[in-house]
Amino acid sequence: MKVETISDPRIEFFDSIADKWDTWHDLQDLNGKLVVLLEEFGINKDESILDVGCGTGNLTISLLQKLGPAGRIIAIDISKEMLERARKKVDDNRVTWHLSSADQLSIEDNTMDRVICFSVWPHFQNHEAVARELRRVLRPMGHLHIVHLISRSKVNHIHEEAHPSVHHDHLVSACETAGLLKKNGFSVISMTDDEQRYIITACK
Ligand SMILES: C[S@@+](CC[C@H](N)C(=O)[O-])C[C@H]1O[C@@H](n2cnc3c(N)ncnc32)[C@H](O)[C@@H]1O
To answer: Which domain holds residue 35?
Structure first.
């Protein structure tokens, strides 16, 4: 596992909930929703995909179901405890684990076909820096997906009720996020911001 030095007040919080994370979710239902979503994304079986804020590896597992033997995943997280659980759960040599923050990746330029930020976008300290970094590692025409499988208002309600370190991790409107992505060199392809999902897809 690659390890970077990270300074973020959220690390302690995410470390502290790593043990409980999977018990708060219906994993079978989540996998079902993710399989449908990944079908919509049109993933090819030999892609290289970056799973940002992988947590305990739930998206990683669904992605592996879509990839063939030549497919690759780099799964990154700032929480050592989340990564430990993901690594134990997902024993697959197509996955590389990095303890690193989305704004500082030890990944070469132009190497990823796709980047997925699943339930992590509001937690970033500097969204412009993250957008630039994700664009850097994407290949030309590579895709970025920002995904929440609940509404924006529900995401914000959860954060307001949670630990102080994430109280202000507000998910802004899809239009506002799209504006930030465009400003940092992405073309926005589609946006959904409704009662069920918040999904933005952009292209380098
Ligand atoms: C709400 S959890 C979602 C986990 C996983 N994507 C899922 O949906 O099951 C957010 C995750 O993002 C990680 N995270 C927060 N800020 C991050 C950053 N700057 N870079 C990488 N990971 C981050 C947290 O440690 C946590 O594991």
So the answer is: 2-203
Can you read off the two tokens belonging to residue 159?
């954060």
Q: Look at residues 92, 93, 64, 97 and name the one whose alpha carbon lies nearest to residue 80.
A: 97
Q: Per residue in 38-89, pLDDT tens? A: 999 999 999 999 999 999 999 999 999 999 999 999 999 999 999 999 999 9
* CA 11–ligand 1 middle distance (angstroms): 9
In angstroms, the Cα distances linking 179 to 52, 123, 125, 174 are 21, 18, 17, 9
Domains in the chain: how many in total?
1
Q: Which of 38, 123, 198 to mutate to test the pocket of ligand 1 (most atoms within 8 A of CB)?
A: 123
Query: How far is Cα 203 from Cα 125, in angstroms, rounded to an integer?
Result: 22
Buried b (16+ CB within 10 A) or exposed e, 170-197: ebeebeebbeebeebebebeebebeeee
Q: Single out the residue of 99, 73, 71 nearest to residue 84, CA to CA.
A: 99
- Confirm whether pTM is higher than 0.70: yes
- CA 109 and chain centroid, separation: 18
Report the separation in Å between the CA atom of 131 and the middle of ligand 1, taken as the mean of its atom positions.
Answer: 16
Element (H, E) at 3: strand 2-3
